[in-house]
Amino acid sequence: MTSAASPAYRRLSVEERRRQLLEAALTLFAHRPPEEVSLDDVAEAAGVSRPLVYRYFPGGKQQLYEAALRSSADALERCFAEPPEGPPTERVSRVLDRYLAFVDQHDAGFAALLRGGSVAETSRTSAIVDEVRRAAAEQILFHLGVGAPGPRLGMMVRTWIAAVEAASLIWVDEGKRPPAPELRDWLVDHLVALLAATAAGDAETADVVARLLSQERAAGPVGRLAKRVIPVVSQAAHLL
Of 175, 155, 152, nearest to 163 (Cα)? Predict the structure, then answer.
């Protein structure tokens, strides 16, 4: 009587097997430098043979690394798609909800995507990471009603994207504290504060803020932040 096949070798579709290998690779790349991860390690983590890994990735570890990053990047980019409905800051809140849910559920892939300084990093892997950042910036500018931003507004949005990345990595390292909704609200507050500070010295951003405020609700993120900030500003009025 033939023994049952091992679960590791159960029959999977091409896409299922490829996804299995990518997930195993992302987990390893997230916790160890790519140059310290071998194809044998990936095969063991996925419960398959080394030749099977080569069958799907004949280019070896570099091809697998780039494919793993691309898989994570594509999923992350989809988080930023949001219909232009409702107040802009509430749209951004929904984007951040999806973004942080991705980080929470795929923290290994997220860390691998943003890991830098590795000898496995190439112009292609750098381009994959930059593509995610550009997509994020374009979506934020879209919700701000801006197509081609000037230098100050463009720099401000890119600065905020960098802050979101950094905060997300710190959040993972700190055991995902504070809770995701609190982090989301703080990141939205950060965006509003950066817009306000930039608007004080940039006419384009001032116009964006004026349009944004006309679409916001008193009970929304901007209104809640204003209630908290106004007392602080009032206390500093004596410095003027």
Answer: 155
